[in-house]
């Protein structure tokens, strides 16, 4: 991460393009950290206030378009993968149907909560939204709201407090992850108990 930060800092005039492009790669499940890009862009904006708007727009649009790419991969490529034995053993149609049902009931809240959970959960949510054939316009609108909330929150925190807030953000993300897992477990057990 430090090398990437230094590279982008040394090429500050191209920073928005580099950040936006890196986040687009994340949409194809290439391991690029959205949180890392938010931190880098906010830190650079703090040191280069004249770049604030460009850096925020780059990281925000990069994160949003990355989500749309991931959704489209699930929607259009995912079903074809299910016909390949290797992938069909990993994800069964019943699981996709359950996820689709969950999105139908809790769609926007799933995306808002999921945006605050790192560890690859975000892309998993977006892929399964596509696989479950969540309405594309509904997904795009809900994710726009979720992306706006998370991007503005994290960018503002990193811009104002820098590296001193990273540990708190990691702890917050871990708590949200645990709460999300507990909620899923609760709903699953409740539904099974019927």
Automatic annotation (TrEMBL):
Species this protein is from: Methylomonas subterranea
Transmembrane segments: 12-32, 52-74, 139-160, 172-189
Alphabetical UniProt keywords: Cell membrane, Membrane, Transmembrane, Transmembrane helix
Subcellular location: Cell membrane
InterPro entries: DedA-like, VTT_dom
Family membership noted in the UniProt record: Belongs to the DedA family.
Top-rank taxon, per record: Bacteria
Membrane topology: Multi-pass membrane protein
Protein name: DedA family protein
């Amino acid at each position: 991460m430090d090398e990437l930060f230094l590279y982008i800092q040394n090429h500050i005039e191209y920073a928005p393009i580099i950040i936006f492009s890196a986040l687009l790669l994340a949409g194809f499940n290439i391991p690029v950290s959205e949180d890392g890009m938010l931190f880098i862009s906010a830190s650079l904006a703090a040191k280069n206030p004249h770049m604030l708007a460009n850096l925020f727009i780059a990281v925000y649009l990069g994160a949003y378009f990355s989500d749309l790419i991931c959704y489209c991969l699930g929607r259009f490529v995912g079903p074809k993968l299910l016909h390949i034995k290797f992938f069909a053993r990993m994800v069964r149609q019943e699981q996709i149907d359950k996820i689709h049902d969950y999105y139908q009931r809790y769609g926007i809240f799933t995306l808002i909560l999921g945006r605050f959970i790192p560890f690859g959960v975000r892309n998993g949510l977006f892929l399964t939204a596509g696989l479950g054939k969540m309405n594309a316009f509904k997904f795009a609108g809900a994710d726009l709201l979720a992306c706006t909330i998370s991007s503005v929150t994290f960018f503002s925190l990193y811009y104002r407090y820098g590296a001193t807030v990273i540990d708190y953000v990691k702890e917050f993300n871990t708590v949200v992850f645990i709460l999300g897992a507990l909620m899923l477990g609760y709903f699953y057990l409740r539904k099974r108990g019927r």
